[in-house]
Amino acid sequence: MSYIMVVATCKRMEEAEAIASGAVEQGLAACVQLSPITSWYTWKGKTCHESEIRLVMKTRHHLYNALEAFILERHPYEVPQIVQIPIEKGYGPFLDWIDETTGKKGA
């Protein structure tokens, strides 16, 4: 089995919570952690400085496309950050738990 973390950001906690709860409820992610962050970036030629909420989602590799589509359907940003980070190693019982809790809703 191949495991990944998917990282995304949202402007508001309510948006992040809706994505997090929906991804877990639909079996697209085993766990989603939310953290407040500060982002500096360039957008349309301007340097921006914003508070955001980072979502870190643990899931299986084959669920990435479904999770990305789920996020895009609910995300207000024109170009949201959605990136996949491979999990090269992990504690066996934790990875087993990811298997047990994802992919149950037809994903």
Q: Can you describe this structure?
A:
The chain is of the alpha+beta class. It contains three helices and four strands. A four-stranded antiparallel sheet has the order 2-3-1-4. A hairpin with a 2-residue loop joins strand 2 and strand 3. Helix 1 packs antiparallel against helix 2. The radius of gyration is 14 Å and the shape is elongated. The two termini are 15 Å apart. The mean pLDDT is 95.
Sum up the structure in keywords.
single chain; 107 residues; alpha+beta; four-stranded antiparallel sheet; 3 helices; 4 strands; elongated
Which regions are unreliable across 5 or more consecutive residues at pLDDT < 50? none
Strand content: 35-45%
- Overall pLDDT, averaged? 95
Structural class: alpha+beta
Number of E-state strands: 4
Describe the structure concisely for a colleague:
With 107 residues, the protein is of the alpha+beta class.
How are the SSEs ordered, and which strands pair?
Elements: E1 3-10, H1 13-25, E2 31-43, E3 46-60, H2 64-74, E4 82-87, H3 92-101
Antiparallel strand pairs: 1-3, 1-4, 2-3
